[in-house]
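In this section we walk through a basic example: taking a raw amino acid sequence and producing a predicted 3D structure, encoded as discrete structure tokens. The instruction is simple. Fold the sequence below.
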Amino acid sequence: MDLIHSIFQIPFTNPTLIFFLVLSVILLAPIILNKIGVPHIIGLLLAGVLIGPNGTGILLRDTSFELFGKVGLLYLMFLAGLEMDINDFRKNRSKGIVFGLYTFIIPMILGTLVSYYLLNFSMVTSILLASMYASHTLVAYPIVSRYGVTKNRSVIITIAGTILTVLLALFILAIITGMYKGELNSAFWIRFGLSVIIYAFVIMFAFPRVAKWFFRKYDDNVTQYIFVLALVFSASFAAELSGLEGIIGAFLVGVVLNRYIPSVSPLMNRIEFVGNALFIPYFLIGVGMLVDLRVLFRGHEALIVALSMSVIATLSKWIAAWLTQKTFRMSKTERLMIFGLSNGQASATLAAVLVGYNIITGTTADGEPIRLLNENILNGTILMILVTCTISSIVTERASRELAMKDEEETYRNQENIPDEKILIPVANPATIENLVNLAIMLKNAKNKSPLYALYVDVDTGNKTDTYSKSILPKVAKIASSTDTEVNMIARSDLNIASGIVHAIKENNISEVVLGFHQKANIADTFFGPTCENIIERTNKMILITKILTPVNTINKIIVAVPPKAEFETGFARWVDRIANMAVQTGCRCIFYCKPHTADRIRQLIELRKYRMRAEFETLNEWKELIALQDVVRKHDIFVIVCARHTSISYHHGFEKLPFILSKHFNFTNLLVIYPEQFANQKEFASFTDVPAMDIKNPYPNFGQYEGFFYNIRSLGGRRKK
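The resulting token sequence is shown next.
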């Protein structure tokens, strides 16, 4: 009976029961409120109010909520940096700085004036209170992430502005705290400046090198996840030691690791899953527990302060968003997004008010302490957190929905000329499966939910297909499922592997095939191997032959060699799309080596379809200059060679020497050889007279010597007409 009494004692103290109740809230609150159109974040906040110490008192805001709440906030800022598009961030950082200044200066001016003249607070109290309005927390960021609009420029501008305004608000807080502690001297500024410089150097230069080394050395997903969390929390703790806020460190680690954790990868899937399922909801429930609605009934003075704080915080953020929209000629939806994300007040505001509340400026005649921020301000802050977080969630939900619909329409328009993608991955060697699947996922359009196709071909008609395919094909599905990618598994017997792959291509209307590089069995064996060569001969679909020696997410650059006239091929847009997808996923530079006219067409396609990639162009006048690229391609780059079949417009006789060049000069390099699709609108014929099926090993090397002869005949015909 004592055990039962202790378990059901209010507030609950049994850890198992507390955790069960929190998980029930995380599960049920969004489900119930979403049915009536209320954002799930508001559900978690209101649930925190209801079950917290200021509500029914079922749970106390104990150390577990403080711990998980802190972790959730750091996780939130880490995800904001990790999901950000770095290329767009570079383009919009000046806009982010302008917004950061708007969203800091306007609340500072408006808040100081209202607090000093209307609420009759002292000037120091008014300034500190205004700095609380200036800072904000990205409470509604999970909504943005759920709708998949984290790469929109309004989101990026808001995040950049958030970092700037939080830094400036903390700067004001440090000055006021130093004034009352008597530490505001030259030594304070020297120590603060040096610590910030050292901290920034370690984060921006040491962390990327450590991360790159670790990801190349250890490929276990669990080990990588623990390593990432260790970086996040070590950087956050170091930020606090340097006099900064921990959220700054978490955000910077997200930015640093951005290019090493592709958005479609098992590691990214784990990071988002754990954060959105546990840590971030815990943080939101903890914020709700802070709210005390009894403030409304504690006299008119407390109510006036609470309402004034809520109005000033909301109005100043709206003005900052409106000015940003007008300055950069943004849409109304983008203004809504900026306002919604920046209006939420939570952790930074609470930290500032607690610091001000604990600063004693004197005593009353009765011996009561006079605080820099009194109880009315403390209670008003709690109510302001509820009001601003509610407005932030509702506005962000509306803006995210509108932006998502717009992005969907734009994506459809940009991709309407590219046929549906169906990527086939023939598998045989278990050691190479993971690299092939990960590369195929990188090449795939992240917004296209079409499945991958995994194929195992057995050249033996016995029972091997049933037994071996059952062990190797599920491994493909397991790797792909960690990125929420569906896989259709195909097992078949055929006369040979090439024949099985070609039949699978036709039966499933495959658009491209990802093959592993052939391992030469003997000195007489060909470079690509008979299987690859037969597939290239017998199908007009795009073939990608790959050799990946280092993890794809640690690649430094993508270097693409493009032959002249490649832009006239049927499959031109498709292979550019695949390389663009890989560049976006890895976040690294993509350098195209080609002729100026080809470069113009690639550049136009990138701009037309709005690929968010860092594309650079260098001139490659002659295909024989391919060897010179060995001085450009480094060990951790990936070298992409766009080839052509013998019947293609862009075919060059230099392709005959390609196996020799690759084996001699690029043997220890990550390689991707692409044979683009050709004659896509024509019917394929499974006969030896089929044009795409011509022997790629026996071209017409002497055709060039007849070129002058045909030209003379054409000229003669022209003269006769005259």
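Looking at the output, two observations stand out. Confidence is low (pLDDT under 50) at residues 680-722. DSSP finds 24 helices and twelve strands in the chain. In the next section we compare this with other chains.
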